[in-house]
Specification:
By secondary structure, the protein is mostly helical. The protein contains 21 helices and eleven strands. The chain has four domains: 144 residues, 3-Layer(aba) Sandwich (Rossmann fold), CATH 3.40.50.620; 153 residues, HUPs (Rossmann fold); 55 residues; 100 residues, Orthogonal Bundle (Arc Repressor Mutant, subunit A). α18 crosses α20 and α19 packs across α20. The chain binds glutamic acid.
Length: 499
């Protein structure tokens, strides 16, 4: 418990080799919450040693995404605390020193095989039905001279203590054992002189004072190899927690190539202008059980309530519908003014000229008026952009939408009903402009005509908004009021006459 009193130092250490997805953010969030909760520190380290796959674009995307979520780092890129740099490619000299120590101690050595030779060794092992575990080879002075002449570049491997069993207690998995004889001597420096993940990650976690390593389950079997390095270098061990996988709905490990399960990349959520606080809430609940029925947590509440003990041991299943649900609940709870400001910002940024024109020519009071009716219906701002220009525009309406078969809506019925509604609307004075009055009049009409609600409310709504999901007819009549509503209804009536 001493570590808790001192505050955990956690870190998230992404490799900038792809777009940040929700699974990564969950790991980062848990690291961040634990650090905040214990008055510790959260660090961000860019593990960019995979030169072929790392890019500056992904790196920037990672930083921008964490800023968007408000997951600030106490140390990391652009924020050095004297233990940086926090980019691994800027730390090569530091790694060299520790690698040399391993070589000097006899815990690491140069290995000279080419890829083809390694493949041949692997095949031979397979023929003998043996697992292939690389062990130190001995080379004659002539062989070594030959390698140098051929310009071969050796790798450096760490010697695995084959007679040992490495044991550690993982916060999620419990006590975990690995017999080391199942592992070959692993590469710690590649032939281009760049260290591998095993080494750089251990050296950095130690030198940057990390006391708690939280990462995804994939790294569980790397941990014993890393513990070999910790031991060989006399580094104190951090605590470990390996989070269960995030699965796609078909039960497979989720990957950024899962394009048919809804949004999974953070930049997609940003571009659809989801609310970061809603998505953080959603992410926190994937695989963490607060042990109450409470589902909505502000960031401060998450800091207060989060606990590693309640991280579920079973794999979590990603459900994009939950993300939509969280976002819609957060939208509903927003104050109208704030909702409209954000919506307009979004439309300015992502809407086309059509939307910019609408924003410039419309009255903010009108936006505020319809805000309560629409914020309970959309799940994202993007949906507003796609479907809700009916608040501002008139468009031709398809008869197939109006004449809903299920409700026995026919042209004849619509014709009669429209005449009555137009008449009713024309006779209303401005003083009668309330949603309730309009609703009462419509319901009264429906009842006296022995109609069903849907036979009037549906076609009216379709004529006023031309989409499947929009506010009720009486709400739209109230919002658009007489002049605009009458224009829309009459223009539909005309299409019936000319048909
Ligand atoms: N760079 C590693 C990765 O992205 C970090 C793993 C770790 O947290 O140790 O998978």
């Amino acid at each position: 418990m001493i570590a808790v009193l001192m505050g955990y130092v956690t870190r998230f250490a992404p490799s900038p080799t792809g777009s940040l997805h929700i699974g990564w953010v969950r790991t980062a969030l848990y690291c961040w919450l634990l650090a905040k909760q214990t008055n510790g520190q959260y660090k961000l380290r860019i593990e960019d040693t995979d030169l072929a796959r790392s890019t500056k674009i992904y790196e920037q995307e990672i930083l921008d995404s964490f800023r968007w979520f408000g997951l600030d780092w106490d140390a990391g890129p652009e924020k050095d605390d004297g233990m940086g740099p926090y980019y691994q490619m800027q730390r090569l000299e530091i790694y060299n020193k520790w690698v040399q120590q391993l070589i000097d101690q006899g815990d690491a050595y140069y290995a000279w095989e080419t890829a083809e030779e390694l493949e041949a060794m692997r095949e031979l092992a397979a023929q003998n039905k043996q697992p292939f575990n690389y062990r130190e080879q001995s080379y004659t002075p002539e062989q070594l001279a030959c390698f140098v002449e051929e310009w071969r570049k050796p790798v450096i491997r760490c010697k695995v203590p084959v007679d040992q069993t490495i044991t550690f207690v993982d916060w999620v998995k419990g006590e975990t054992l690995f017999a080391m004889k199942q592992f070959g001597d692993f590469v710690i420096v590649k032939s281009d002189g760049v260290p591998t993940y095993y080494l750089a990650n251990v050296v950095d976690d130690y030198l940057q004072g990390i006391t708690y390593v939280i990462r995804w389950e994939e790294h569980l079997s790397n941990t014993p190899k890393q513990i070999v390095l910790y031991n060989a270098l006399w580094f104190s061990l951090p605590e470990f927690a390996h989070l269960p996988l995030m699965l796609n709905p078909s039960g497979k490990k989720m990957s950024k190539r899962d394009t048919n399960i809804g949004l999974i990349l953070v930049h997609q959520f940003r571009e659809a202008w989801f609310l970061p606080e809603a998505i953080l809430n959603f992410i926190a609940m994937i695989g963490w059980n607060p042990w109450t029925d409470k589902e909505f947590f502000t960031v401060d509440e998450l800091i207060e309530h989060f606990s590693m003990e309640r991280v579920q041991k079973a794999n979590a299943v990603y459900d994009f519908k939950r993300a939509l649900w969280f976002n819609s609940e957060y939208l509903k709870a927003m104050d109208n003014q704030q909702f409209i400001e954000k919506l307009i910002d979004y439309l300015y940024l992502y809407g086309d000229e059509h939307w910019k024109g609408i924003i410039e020519s419309s009255d903010r009071d009108y936006w505020l008026q319809f805000a309560p009716y629409i914020k309970v219906r959309i799940q994202t701002f993007e949906q507003f952009k796609e479907y809700c220009d009916y608040f501002f525009l008139r468009k031709p309406v398809e008869q197939t939408l109006v004449n809903k078969e299920k409700m026995w809506v026919t042209n004849e019925l619509v014709h009669g009903m429209l005449h009555a509604c137009i008449h009713m609307l024309e006779s209303l004075s401005d003083a009668q402009r309330t949603e309730e009055t309009i609703k009462e009049l419509l319901i009264d009409f429906i009842q006296t005509q022995w109609l069903k609600n849907g036979q009037v409310l549906w076609p009216l709504r379709a004529m006023l908004t031309w989409v499947e999901a929009s506010p009720w007819a009486f709400e739209m009549l109230y919002l658009l009021w007489k002049e605009e509503s009458l224009l829309r209804l009459k223009s539909y009536l005309n299409t019936l006459h000319t048909a």
